[in-house]
Every structure is written in C-alpha cells, then in structure tokens.
Request: fold
Amino acid sequence: MEILGLDIGGANLKAIKLSVSNGKTHVKEVIREYFPVWILGKNGVVEGLRKLKESVNPSPNYVVSTTMTAELSDLFRNKSEGVRFIVGTVEEVFSDASRRFYVNVKSKLVEYSEAYKSPLEIAAANWAASAWLISKKLRNCIFIDIGSTSTTIVPIINGKISVQGYTDPEKLVYGELVYLGVLRTNICSIVNKVPYKGLFARLSSEKFALSGDVCLVLGKIGVKDYTTETADGRGRGIRECLDRLSRVPCADNEILNDYEILEIARYVYESMVFRVFETLTQVRSRIASLGYNPSTFKVCTAGLGSFLAKEAAKRAGFKDVIDVSGIYGKKISHILPAYAAALMALEVLGK
Amino acid sequence: MEILGLDIGGANLKAIKLSVSNGKTHVKEVIREYFPVWILGKNGVVEGLRKLKESVNPSPNYVVSTTMTAELSDLFRNKSEGVRFIVGTVEEVFSDASRRFYVNVKSKLVEYSEAYKSPLEIAAANWAASAWLISKKLRNCIFIDIGSTSTTIVPIINGKISVQGYTDPEKLVYGELVYLGVLRTNICSIVNKVPYKGLFARLSSEKFALSGDVCLVLGKIGVKDYTTETADGRGRGIRECLDRLSRVPCADNEILNDYEILEIARYVYESMVFRVFETLTQVRSRIASLGYNPSTFKVCTAGLGSFLAKEAAKRAGFKDVIDVSGIYGKKISHILPAYAAALMALEVLGK
Reply:
C-alpha cells in the first residue's frame, strides 16, 4: 500500500509518498514547493492539491495523512473556516483514498467528521506531527524547527511531548513559537534600528527587505535555498539582496556602500539569533522549574534555518545539538511534518 | 630615573613604576586596588594616594604621569571640580617629583597649569593613553577595553586614533563607550526581564545583583577576579552569587532552584554580549562608511572583561582578535592606561 503525507502550509506545500510492503517502508517521492496561499486564493489551493496528486500519482488503496498551517492565512475569515476549507478540499481531491487522516494538536490522527467538528484541534498541528516522530528517538530533547516564516520549539521530557501551548497564540505566549524565519520575515519586524555611518538609523516599515536577504548576503543560505518571492520581485543574487537591504533605513545602493550594507545584515542576523536564544531560555526555565538540568537535554534542529537554531541553542547552554537530517537524511528533514504525518498513519493502521 | 604611571579610576586605582637606565625600561612594581571614590570621599582619595606613594617608594628625581576617570564620581559637583581636585591632590602628594604630567583626550601630556585651565580635556582620558600605546603596534585596529564598570571602544585607522567622541557623553553617543562592565553593573540596567518558570518576569530595580554575579556563576571569572564589593555585602562564592541573582525578579533561593537561577544568568550574559556587539556594529558602520572593510581590522582586547569583548567581536564579524596581554603580558594588561601614561612620559622626556 501507499501512504501520502501532506503538510499544507501557508507558504509551502510539502508531501511525501511512502510505499509499504512486508513491514518495510520506502520513500517513493518527496515534494516541497512554494505555495503562497494568500496569493493563490481558494481556487488556487484546490488546483495546487489536484496538481500535486497528479504528479504523485498514488496507487489504488492509498491513504492520505494531512497536517496544516495554511488556515492562518488571511484568505480565511478565521482558523475554523480555514481548516474546514482545507479538510473539505483534501476530502474532495483525494476522495479515492481508502482513508484520510488529519493530525491534531495532541499528536493523534482524526478523520473528517471530527476534524470538521473541532477544527481548532487541527489548526497549526504540524509541530505535533514532527514532535511525535522525534519523541520516539530522543527522550529528553528540545526540537527546534526553523522554516522560511516561523520557528517552532517543542520540549520533549521523558519521551513525552511537553508543550504548554496548543494553539499559535498560546505558543507565542509560552515561547514555543517565534514568528521569525530565515526567508520571509520583514526586517522591520526583527529590529527597530540599524547601524548607519557610525550612528543608528530608525527603519522604514515598508516590506523593502526580508530575512532571506540577510541570510543570503552573509552566506548562511544559497540562492537555490531562497525559495520565496523577494520583497521587490527582483532577483535573488547577492547584488539584489544588498540593494534591498540598503532600503531598510530608507537609503539605497548609492548612499550606502556594500560594507555598510553588510553591517546592517550582521546586526539583523545577530538580532535573529538573540530572538531565538531568548525564547529558548524561556523554555529552558520551565524545564529547570521541573527540576531538570536543561543543559543535559539534547537539541534536535530541523528546517532550512537549522543553522540559526544551532547557534541559538549553543548560546542558550545546550551542548549536544544534532540536525534532524542526521537521523532522517536531508531530503526528508525539509518536509518533516509530512513524513511524520505519514508515519502516524502507518502506526494507526498497524503497519 | 623612575616613572610612576597612575590611572585614578572611580572604582580602581592602578599604578606602575618603571625604572629607566641606558635606554632600557624595567617594570619595578604593578599595583591594582579597589578604590571606590564615592565611598572613600575626598579625604580617602588623598589618603589612598599617599599610601600608594609610600608603598611604591619612588627614588628621587622620579616623574609622575597620571590619567583618570574618577572625576565622574558624584563625589564631585561636576567633572571640572573632580579633575581639579585630583590634579591638585597629585600635585600635593607627589610634590617631590621632578615632573608631573596629565594625559589629555588628544593623547598628549600636559602639566598642572594647563590641566587646571582645561579640566574637561583631562577628564576620562585613560582610553587616550591606552589607544596611544596600541596605535604604535597595530595600524588598523579596534581596541576594546572592558573593565569592572564600563566598556571602551577605540577605532585606530591607519595608525591614528580615530574617535568621534572626546567626552564620556559624546562617546556614549558614538558607540565608543558602553556603560557596562563585568563586575559592577546592576542587572536591571542590562535587561528589563528575565526567564522565570516558562515565562518572563519583569525586574526589581534594586541593586540586588551585579554583572559580577552573572560572570562568576557562568565560570567567566573566578572568585579572585571579583574585586569589587558585592551588591548585598555578602560573599563572592557561587552560592552567594546565585542567591543574589534569584532576587532580581523579586524571588529568592527557596522560590527558584539553581537551574532556574542559571537561566537568568545566561540570559543576562547574552544580553551583555549583544550590547557590546551592537555598539561594535555602530563603530564598524563608520569604518565601512570611510570605505574600509571592517572585517579586515584587528581587534585588541583588554581588561578583566576581555572574554566578553572577544565574543562580541567574533559575532560582529572580526576574524583576528588578540588580547593585549599577548603583547604586554597579563599583569600589565590589567593596568594598561597607567603603563601607557608612563610610556607617554618617557617619550616626552626623550628617554
């Protein structure tokens, strides 16, 4: 049989096809594509999932297991509407599947009627899929997933997922979500000033430059990693990234030379590391309050922003930091929630 | 002949005695003692300098060269009064010296009448002595001196001291002074919240704990380095430091366990590194605006907080970071402005 794992994000669509025979699992297909829900609109979402299905071409009797965050998009009036729309679309597009599962925030799989009845339990649950997977491997661990848009932090204590927040706003409160990623984050949401010719300048609040520009000019990511649209629709080369960054303090590439622009990038990057570090200390302080020494916990990083997670974890006092790609390989680590959702289905089906 | 170099700080008194014969210089004595001017009072300052002279016991015909920052103490109504008091005291206590010099902010030595006439040119000039010395060794360099109380940053470009600020407030504006040190800084002046049982707590503004407590519990300094009075007058052991830190969010050692307190320390320490990093990017951005690549500049660190300077410099993008003790030895590096003042006198005297 085949299992299709889906992670329908607000900015990226991730999928994996596993085939299972004689108790052995094989990865048949891995897909990660830019999927800007707020641009695509509802029809675009339906169309995108149809195309995905065509390209994956599952064999009869396949099972679909879905996790999502796209319901947060302002395409939808609220999360419930978003979840119901996505669930409805999956039910329709994959109507020929033998079973259709949805991951909830308790790391359980539910089917259509329950997902429709309690949509908030399905919203933003992709972390619950990934954390479920990691908790099988590492008993005391902080899982940190930094993607294009956001940072998820999940403590696993004694083999159990031990979060305080089950919704995005709760996670923002408890330090389990930082709305900061390595591609799509507007610079003016990270810092409120940048170094400028020996002083500091306050910032424009336009979307002139993104965290992707910072990470690229500092060599943290390559051009091929820059998989979102740029702030000005221009290219992804170093020159274009520097040009965009120069606009953050309302300057341009004639007013600032490249060395000056690089200082802006460095300042923003360190502020990003500090933001993640700060959130980690919050989570560590809870672990400490339970009587554990947080420095003995492992850290497992995932996502395109793994480099940022590692740096922040080291500063927070963690000694043992591994990347999830060291466990599952690089390809799967980039679509981890989809893979986890698929494996959860395997477990439910007793395969 | 003998030269006595003095650095009369607000918190520490530093001195060096050099003997010079046949063009060769020998270090005869190095003194560094806690000298809390605001506690000692004017009489205590006079008395302290008298005792210092007794203990150093200079031979006839000696020369004194003095730099200072003690005039900032609120013992004095303003800097002019402070400088004139200190200069007057030096003139009196060391009246048997053949010459008495004072370092000014242009890295020149002046004598009594000029110091008395233009006291603001003498105020807080110890950086000008150290930077003068470093500029003889390193053409393109940032000199970073982190002491118990404050951080001084001096850019040296093409062998010339290239600062924008000549007074403390100007230096605070241009990123050449950070009022942050590794012993005496009140925690609530560094951060405005600390991690607390999975959340963040705002802070008491009492002087409950100091940066020295943070650096000690994290192993950045040893008990013997903790050469200032503690916030509560109690001891300098790890236990006492942890106890003091627990009070910062109005808790105590019954409400917080040691792991929880250590998280507070980590958060404050990273905030200290960030503060110095931030100021370095400001100075770097000025260097960049002059067309230089700041990453090619060396960094020379000095003072008890050299470890903090190194960490911040690395994050700011500097590759080549050396400690001044690598040039002058550890003992002298801790009293660098006094040593530099002495050597400036040697140069003026043509020895």
Observations:
- The interface with chain A takes residues 164, 174-175, 195-200, 257, 259-260, 262-264, 266-267, 270, 274, 277-278, 281-289, 291-294, 315-317 of chain B (CB under 8 Å).
- Chain B is about 40% helix and 20% strand.
- The mean pLDDT of chain B is 96.
- Residues 132 and 278 of chain B are 25 Å apart (CA to CA).
